[in-house]
Amino acid sequence: MNLYLIGALVFWLAAWALNVWLSNLKPTRLTKLLVPLIFGITLLVIWEWVVRGLEVKAVLLPPPSMIWERFISDLSQLGFIQMVFADGPISFGCGNSKLCADFVQTFIKGALSGYFIGCGAAFVTAVAIDRSPFLQKGLLPVGNFVAALPIIGMAPILVMWFGFGWQSKAAVVVIMVFFPMLVNTVQGMQAQTAMQRDLMRTYAASYPQKLLKLRLPAAAPFIYNGLKISTTLALIGAIVAEFFGSPTVGMGFRISTEVGRLSLDMVWAEIVVAAIAGSAFYGVVALLEKATTFWHPSQRG
């Protein structure tokens, strides 16, 4: 048997035994960090050695080492990222790095702008629905209808409407994040108990007082759930929209172009950037949730 395959098998057994031993220990921050870290390293090592052992062509599946080399070689051309306040919008200098330019175009311009617009609009709509039973019966079905629209069908239409720039990608992201945020916020607005609502009536509280002191605090975990779900949807929507028309920059554009060139190492490098960006975005929202809802039972140990 190939030495690479034997090494992959031995490494997997050793890592499995180590993770089992760590899992049986008393849970600490270190063990909670080590278990997924060892699991991830094991996947990368097995991927590397199995690909080399079976002599899989890089066109089909490049090894992690090749992806890492392409990733580093591209980032070595990175200039200082700086915001330039000129007559136009804020621009970022990425040097000759394609990964950086794609990240700015897809994540900063398309995903983030659509995320804030879509989540903000969904929050305002949820407050209006909570205030008016008429809107609850009329807007929620419309929101459900919009959520059921296939993004593959809507993306080319929005590109035709808003052009090939980041604006059309932001529009796709707005559609993708609006409904999850709306549903979670509306559900959270109704999370109070009957005793809490009766107490507010006893105090003769107005609707703004009920909203600020009861409904929004009770809905905070639901709102953050919608925000966390939307972090991944925003990036996916921006990348998918770029397949249907974009300038010569962007993660979706780069993936479709490099696949046509059979440059799979660059495709996987783009996937790595997208995974890092999405995970970091989710982590920031999760940390913000812990910092602002520390008082809630869901955040207490």
Features of this protein?
single chain, 301 residues, mainly alpha, MetI-like fold, 2 domains, 11 helices, 2 strands, 76% helix, 1% strand, flat
CATH superfamily assignment of the largest domain?
MetI-like
For the record, the count of structural domains works out to 2
Order of helices and strands: HHHEEHHHHHHHH
Work out the helicity level: over 70%
Q: Describe the strand arrangement of the main beta sheet, using strand numbers.
A: 1-2
Radius of gyration using CA atoms only? 24 Å
* CATH class assignment of the largest domain: Mainly Alpha
Describe this structure in words.
The chain is mostly helical and 301 residues long. The protein has 2 domains: 3-56; 97-299, MetI-like (MetI-like fold), CATH 1.10.3720. The protein contains 11 helices and 2 strands; from the N terminus they run αααββαααααααα. It has a two-stranded antiparallel sheet. A hairpin with a 6-residue loop joins β1 (83-84) and β2. The radius of gyration is 24 Å and the shape is flat. The chain starts with a helix and ends in a 9-residue tail after the last helix. 30% of the residues are buried.
Gist of the model:
The protein is mostly helical and 301 residues long. 76% of the residues lie in helices and 1% in strands. The chain has eleven helices and two strands, in the order αααββαααααααα.
Secondary structure elements and pairings:
Blueprint lengths: L2 H22 L4 H25 L10 H12 L7 E2 L6 E2 L5 H34 L1 H16 L2 H12 L3 H24 L4 H9 L4 H36 L8 H10 L3 H29 L9
Antiparallel strand pairs: 1-2
Helix pairs in contact: 1-2, 3-11, 4-5, 4-7, 4-9, 4-11, 5-7, 6-7, 7-9, 9-11, 10-11
